[in-house]
Amino acid sequence: MSDRYEIKTVADFLSVPAEKRAECLADFSQWLSIVDEHKEIESLLDQIAGTDGAFSTITDRFIWIDDSKRGVSGINFTTGEDSCKTKP
Asked: What is the rounded CA–CA span in Å between residue 44 and residue 52?
């Protein structure tokens, strides 16, 4: 069974076992890069549509699932009722 950790604050990283934090932080770093790219796309869509933030789907949390695999095995962006799943 995979362990699931919801990270909303820096202190939440302490809930991840010490021996797993390096893996969690590596995945978090990749997640941040993806979010940065996603924000750029949202900004371009807002410019094209002439809206201000209508395409924003930024989340306020990072959920890390310890699947005991090295690297990112899957990503799930969820906004409201919609979700978008990707696999590297």
From this structure: 11
Position 29, amino acid? S
The predicted model scores a pTM of 0.70
N- to C-terminal Cα separation, the chain: 22
Chain-wide mean pLDDT for the chain? Answer: 82
Sign of CA dihedral 62, 65, 71, 75: negative
18, 34, 58, 62, 69 from 38: Cα distances, Å: 30, 6, 9, 15, 25
- Burial level of 80, CB count in 10 A (0-12/13-18/19+)? exposed
Amino acid at position 59, single letter: T
| Model confidence pLDDT, tens digit, residues 29-60 | 988 888 888 888 888 888 888 888 777 777 77
